[in-house]
TrEMBL record, chain A:
SUPFAM superfamilies: 2Fe-2S ferredoxin-like (SSF54292), alpha-helical ferredoxin (SSF46548). The keyword 4Fe-4S applies. Pathway: Carbohydrate metabolism; tricarboxylic acid cycle. Belongs to the succinate dehydrogenase/fumarate reductase iron-sulfur protein family. One of its GO terms (molecular function) is electron transfer activity. The lineage of its organism: Bacteria, Bacillati, Actinomycetota, Actinomycetes, Jiangellales. It comes from Jiangella asiatica. GO terms for cellular component: plasma membrane. This is Succinate dehydrogenase/fumarate reductase iron-sulfur subunit.
UniProtKB/TrEMBL annotation, chain B:
This is Succinate dehydrogenase. It comes from the Bacteria. The chain crosses the membrane at residues 25-45, 85-108, 148-165, 177-197, 236-255. Keywords: Membrane, Transmembrane, Transmembrane helix.
Amino acid sequence: MGYDLDMKVWRGDASGGELVDFTVEVEEGEVVLDALHRIQATQAGDLAVRWNCKAGKCGSCSTEINGKPRLACMTRLSTFEEGETVTVTPLRAFPVVRDLVTDVSYNYKVAEKVPPFAPEPRPADGAYRMQQVDVERGQEFRKCIECFLCQTVCHVIRDHEENKPSFAGPRFFLRYAELEMHPLDTNDRRELAREQAGIGLCNITKCCTEVCPEGIKITDNAIIPMKERVADRSYDPVTWLGRKIFRRDQLPDAQVPRTPGD
Amino acid sequence: MAAPTGTQSPTRARITARSLRTDRWWVYPSFTALVLLAFVVYATYRAFVGEHYFIEPYLTPLYSPCVTTECVEGSAHLGTWVGDWWPLSPAVLILIIPLSLRLTCYYYRKAYYRSFWMSPPACAVAEPHRRYTGETRFPLILQNIHRYALYLALAYNVLLTYDAVMSFKSPEGEWGHMGLGSLILVVNAVLLGLYSLSCHSCRHIIGGRLRSFSKHPVRYRAWGMVSVLNGRHAQLAWASLVWVAFTDFYIWMVASGTWSDPRFF
Ligand code: SF4
Ligand code: SF4
Ligand code: FES
Ligand code: FES
């Protein structure tokens, strides 16, 4: 059974834009992305919207729907009250390209700075071995679809453009945590997490966890454990003393912060 | 005026609204602020009034352990070794421990950053501050030593457990007594114990800090258990807070003679 849905869709580019009203016929069971596609097909052929899989797995269709960062392809129209207007805007933490499309390249620059996986040398038989419990630990982090909804909602950069160069953001704290919890990895990223990734800027207010479509417990399982590791390394006088006495976990040279283009 | 930042930065989609959220996002921060304020007002009043905190065999958690010479007779289980130099009520001296735990607790940080500091008030609602340095500067950088507050609090929990056990003595000092107050004190000790054990720093220390779980099977199992509790940390934070206030209120009422403590045996 079809019905008419009132929508407001932001249209414009970096030079300006506005919320434009549309009324579009939709079917029960459809999602916001369907409605956007129908607008594109019937009323505004040049509406720019990014999408790919329509299955919540590619992370392309991230937008803000009624003010909340969400995947357009996974937001059912039945989530809204009857007669409610559905407002769709581009992600508000990144530069807008056109209409609903933003330039998310900030995230790729941050990704470049995470020191890569550095496994220990292979044992004599050439085979790395990992126990199941250690494999499972990082599994949650690998569910990330890189939709960057957590990045756009994070007030550290959403509300403070000037923090971008010094902050990696929740998606990349996942990456730091995953590598730090990898038994074969030899890098020590704790100092980098503090210095370069700016984990101290996060005030664990948990919005990243609230919006993650994969349900990853970003704050509890990645950010807080990383903050605790950073505390071990930089703030805890007892572990600091232990390190001085036993001269353990010194940062190897290979971990001088890399900058993009290195 | 300085250049606009945040969602009003020049490269971002030009939308002036601070938030386009249509749900009642202000409910959580307002409610949290109200409950926290209510607790602070209540606890401050009770901590400074300095009376009706002890009646055999019950000592309210707000005054335990009572260690200055000002403590009423029988309430100083650990002795009054602090002496008489402490000018304020004995509660103030000891409340520093639970206060430092809760102030630096990862959950309460979320709660008060959102409710009081509005940083941010709710997700995707712009915060009112122009500048933001998170927890990188003094004093907030001190949040990093939360674990020391935890160690102190764990010791403090032992004392509260002791108080709960002592409440099974009758006012005459005989074992085998149990009143409603004993039950309330036991629940109080259990809730506070679970709150501390479910702490994120505790989870880290127990096993989270390991790179390899398989090399430390015992710590891995302990980590698994603490992780289960940790998933309930926020609920335990609230439950233990409310229960401490309730325990104190109950003992206040009994000690002031407003009502009497029903005795089970
Ligand atoms: S918890 Fe930290 S990283 Fe996540 S949204 Fe909040 S400030 Fe950003
Ligand atoms: S962590 Fe979640 S919200 Fe963030 S990019 Fe990955 S899937 Fe998206
Ligand atoms: S289109 Fe792939 S996640 Fe929505
Ligand atoms: S007590 Fe809440 S995180 Fe430690």
